[in-house]
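fyi for ur records
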Amino acid sequence: MEKERIKSLAQNKKARHDYFIEETFEVGIELCGTEVKSIRQGMLNLKDSYAAISRDGEVYLKGMHVSPYEKGNIFNRDPLRDRRLLLHRGEIRKLGEAVSQLGYSLVPLSVYLKGPKVKVELAVVKGKKLYDKRDDAAKRDAHRSIQRALRERSRE
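which gave:
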């Protein structure tokens, strides 16, 4: 069996900085034709986007900006419209239980092509406090300085 090719289209780097990632899900997304063409060109932005579970038991991605396709004319949709995420009932129930806990929410981490399909990596996240962000920055700086010292030592 041939391994499916994955091409990353957009990353939400701010999410990894602002949140602790508890669990991730690969989900499909319901799109229109011109939106797919625009996304394939990389004309989307995940900044400030999040997912929410509606009263009718569906999960919607809110705040994802997909720029209008330049050749789409009347078929273009609103760039900031809510887009339905495609999940099984059990997965939606599991997400609902996770989000009902205080401090947890759903955030998209990335959008990518898996074969011909557009997929979203959705995460259950918990917000970081300022001191957590400082700890991460300190660890990252320490790791960088160790790597730098090892490189200099190997050159000698």
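The helical segments are 13-18, 33-40, 89-100, 130-155. thats all i got for now
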